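Thread: quick sanity check before group meeting

JM: Hey all, I'm pulling together slides for Thursday and realized we never actually wrote out the predicted structure for the chain we discussed last week. Dropping the sequence here so it's in one place. If anyone has concerns about the input, flag it before I start.
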Amino acid sequence: MTDDSSQLSPPDWATCSEEQLWHYVAWHLEGAGIRSVLVGGAVVSIHTEGLYRSGDLDLIPDDLCSQWWFCRPCAVGGSLDR
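JM (edit): ok, ran it. Output follows.
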């Protein structure tokens, strides 16, 4: 990362971890107004501090449930009790 908070330097593509790549991609998505959540194997890689390597990033929109019918209780005739 550079001293200028308006820019984020790209990681070293040959050696970066999933976490470094995620920070870079998420920063650019956020800058475009897209909030995201990291899911899948890259999460495991981050939590195991690299003991597991996913090799990719799986991102979903932060507001996924507001966009997809299968998350809405009324669409499946049920309700979600929290």
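AS: nice. The first strand starts at residue 36 and ends at 39. The radius of gyration is 16 Å.
JM: adding both to the slides.
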